[in-house]
Amino acid sequence: MLPEARMSSAPEPAASPTEGSTLPDPSPPAGGERPKKKKLKAKHPKPPIPRTEDEIDSPSKQTLGMLAVIGIMTVCMWLFARGGCNYHPPKETRDPRKVDLIDLARDPKDAALELQQRWATKSFGGALELAKPPLIDELKKQQQACDANPQCAQEASTLRSKVQSVSVLLERDPLKATARVTTYGASATPEKYIVRLEREQQMWKAVSREVDDGSFKPRPPSAPAQRDGSMILRSGN
């Protein structure tokens, strides 16, 4: 037997290209790009820990400046908006809107208040719209006396700016009601009146007005009918 040949550790020589063999193309494949290598991010050193308030610098001067600018702009815009809302061109007026009579007299307390306010300010024409006989006759006499007095119109203009009235409902049923009206500013002391009203379709109108001397006592409310709670049994046939 022949001895086995010793295996050599030397690398084998690279095979030389021969005819018919192809070498790898170093150019990138068609339709693709070479993979990009990830760039290593440079590590920035950590900032030192602040030890004093000056080193913290929070909030900064820039932040304070921007907050001041925003505050000034907010105040300016508020001033312009307020001025625009309150501006009235010369042709416009600030008079309150006109309310229909039916809205003023839909409730007896409001109707009594409106009647007394017009009466106290010597607006007898407006008070006549809220009155029924026999109160109409009394109002017409007051209106004739005011028309005969030249100073009545001036007094009425003065009273409109200082007279105020308060109304309290004392009694009410589906067709009639009674209210107490107190007027301030027409004289040195408050004036109190008892006004009785009646319903007229959807409105309430006054039929009388008397000075409140304290003798009027409203009726106590009627108690609802009470049942004894017994049950009625009905037997079927």
Biggest sheet: strands side by side, in what order? 1-2-3-4
According to CATH, what is the class of the domain at 101-211?
Alpha Beta
Topology as H/E string? HHHHHHHEEEE
Percent strand: 15-25%
How confident is the prediction overall: mean pLDDT?
A: 81
The biggest sheet, with number of strands, parallel, antiparallel or mixed sense and barrel status, is: 4 strands, antiparallel
Oligomer: single chain
Helix content: 25-40%
Structural class: alpha+beta
What is the second-level CATH architecture of the domain at 101-211?
Roll
C-alpha Rg, in Å?
50 Å
Straight-line N-to-C gap: 135 Å
Low-confidence stretches: none
What's the total count of β strands? 4
Shape: elongated
The CATH topology of the domain at 101-211 is what?
Nuclear Transport Factor 2, Chain: A
**Total DSSP helices:** 7
